[in-house]
């Protein structure tokens, strides 16, 4: 039996990824996380001296803190299993990537274990995050110069 | 007559005792009543998951030995394996147990390959008592091959859940009243170009089909000769492909086929396609199947353990996943 | 799963109720100014769906809420409005912001009619808007 023939058999049996279902779940999960973050932002604006602009920093910190608790109690992986990208894309997913790696490598010590491996998964998020931020800034600069958007 | 990869054991070495241990999640397994010990803690109250892994294996060995009324120093050989880098849990178990040790690696097929090697040693007259088997521990193996345990990555339907379990067999020259090893077949590494590590069943199915074919042809057997033909950890998807391949070989009666990985968690969808790991097949073979052989519910079984021979690095480098399947035939007279 | 279902139900309810925030225009004159000009200017801007404006002493502070799809240009809308208001009231120090914090705080200042400390509060708001992140 050759590889192509086997690939045909394999594809006819392996269930296809339910893209629509996954997209819907990601939308619901990601949307819920963002909604919660919006509540927190409104909370900071209502009870503290933060404006819409400055409230984003404490909101992000709070969301990462919540994500840390969920990761530690083993709940975030369930959210991730349900929501897929919806759980991975918001800042909570980033926090989960950092914290899960830190928990995992604690047994190898704090310097070489936690320190060395904490950004094992999130490192590429930081790298490509910075890179895409650069690209987005470039696009926005062009849009502002064209007068379509403002800073 | 010498045939490639085929083994026969005219002296019928016997599996005189087994020891099976499992983690807390494995209470959900329909086989859990056959397990000798179930821990309440995933890492067996050890400091690290890897130590827990070693403890899982060590306890299974001690249970198997104690059923015989033996101590480790009575055993001649210790043939075990696992999936962690350089098999450290097996190495640590071997250190504490002190039996002359050979590490065996065939990924998740280690359960059968170690038993075949033990049968060979016994057949040659070099061994009066050999301990063989394999183990896996969910946290240690997932970390080895995939993401950190708490990382929220979505796994698809075809992904498998590494079982926390150890299955250890004590093998001696022939004794009456216990299951014996009749023959076996070492598999060929088969690579059908599958690359998805979250669909290992599809990578392993051709190896299982190939080994089954070679075993039946080489030993002149029919599928209907067996009460049960159980593959290792193909999972739901891999097992469906395996059945399709078997049917393509012209075998129509598939009633006695089953898969240890698929059945391990009772087809619970929380565990996706089913269980995997070196301990999965070992635990099922040496608990459920062994018990049914002992009670003479099964007279003759064929166990085909399958293993995906990948490393996290090999698939990241874009390599395909070669697979292997080893078969062992047990009878009860 | 049951917990998730309850949570979804609860959240959709919250979603629906969240739409019930009224969008109003409030204008308060505590500085003896002619406010009708400002009122016309703000209300005629189609991109603005709510505003709170307070004239106090030599200050004019305006918080606006822009329509959803104009939010991309909200700082631009605010600064346009600020320029035109400055032209109308050259003697006042004008602050226009599309930040919801300014809107709610200005509304609060209008509604709590006590007169002491208003000046201080306005200065605080100006500091908030100018704060660097």
Helix-strand sequence of chain C: HEHEEHEHH
Percentage of β-strand residues of chain B: 15-25%
* Percentage of residues in DSSP E strands of chain C: 15-25%
CATH superfamily of the largest domain in chain B: Stage V sporulation protein AD
- State the secondary-structure class of chain B: alpha/beta
**Main sheet of chain C?**
4 strands, mixed
Helices and strands, with pairings:
The complex is a heterotrimer of chains A (151), B (333) and C (133).
Chain A: H1 3-13, H2 19-47, H3 56-72, H4 76-83, H5 85-88, H6 91-104, H7 110-117, H8 122-146
Helix pairs in contact in A: 2-3, 3-6, 6-7
Chain B: E1 6-8, E2 14-22, E3 37-38, H1 49-68, E4 77-81, H2 88-97, E5 101-103, H3 110-123, E6 130-136, H4 138-145, E7 161-162, E8 165-172, E9 180-185, H5 200-218, E10 228-231, H6 235-248, E11 257-259, H7 260-264, E12 275-276, H8 278-294, E13 300-308, H9 312-316, E14 323-331
Parallel strand pairs in B: 2-3, 4-5, 4-6, 7-12, 10-11, 10-13
Antiparallel strand pairs in B: 1-9, 2-8, 6-8, 9-14, 13-14
Helix pairs in contact in B: 1-2, 5-6
Chain C: H1 2-18, E1 25-30, H2 36-44, E2 48-56, E3 59-66, H3 74-88, E4 93-97, H4 100-111, H5 118-130
Parallel strand pairs in C: 1-2, 3-4
Antiparallel strand pairs in C: 2-3
Protein name (chain A): Stage V sporulation protein AC
Transmembrane segments (chain A): 26-47, 59-76, 83-103, 123-143
Organism (chain A): Sporosarcina quadrami
